[in-house]
Amino acid sequence: MSIAIRPASRSDIAHIAQWNLAMAWETEQKALDAAVLERGVIAVFDEPRRGFYLVADRGGEPVGCLLVTYEWSDWRAGDFWWIQSVYVVDSARREGVFRRLYEDAQQRAKQAGAVGLRLYVETENERAQRTYAGLGMERCHYFMYETEF
């Protein structure tokens, strides 16, 4: 079945929130607060400066998504596009859904004048790392640190 990529619409909010809950649990065994998550997804639609979602449809049914956010690089005088919140439903995995989402995001980034694409991946998620490498992405030499409030 063919896979079509499209910008997400508000009618996708429930799917996106559900998929983010599932992704957080699958990758980090982290139980997110569903109400906070839904507000977070809605905020992307309310304020486009935050980014945008892409949705993959297979046979007219949504089967996956990703979020693109922006990071200004003063070194390059342009935006890196960050790929986040990637999720593909179990029944559509290993069918090229992420590849299609990535290719679409890459094309949009180039057309918008972005300076590159970035994403982060769990250190133990070797399958995802192989997928990203297979798409031509390279591991950076940075570690990521954070403080949550």
Molecular structure report:
- With 149 residues, the protein is α+β, with helices and mostly antiparallel strands.
- 36% of the residues lie in helices and 27% in strands.
- The protein is built from four helices and five strands, in the order E-H-H-E-E-E-H-E-H.
- A hairpin with a 2-residue loop joins strand 2 and strand 3.
- Helix 1 packs across helix 2.
Task: Give a brief outline of the structure.
The chain has 149 residues and is an alpha+beta fold. The protein has one domain (3-134): Gcn5-related N-acetyltransferase (GNAT) (Aminopeptidase), CATH 3.40.630.
**In CATH terms, what is the fold-level topology?**
Aminopeptidase
Number of helices: 4
Reported CATH architecture:
3-Layer(aba) Sandwich
Instruction: Determine the fraction of residues in helical runs and give it as a percent range.
Output: 25-40%
Return Rg in Å: 15 Å
What is the straight-line distance between the termini?
Answer: 44 Å
Q: Which strand order spans the largest sheet, edge to edge or round the barrel?
A: 1-2-3-4-5
User: What order do the helices and strands follow?
Assistant: EHHEEEHEH
Pfam families: Acetyltransf_1 (PF00583)
Protein name: GCN5 family acetyltransferase
GO molecular function: acyltransferase activity, transferring groups other than amino-acyl groups
Domain N-acetyltransferase: 3-149
Keywords:
single chain, 149 residues, alpha+beta, Aminopeptidase, 5-stranded mixed beta sheet, 5 strands, transferase
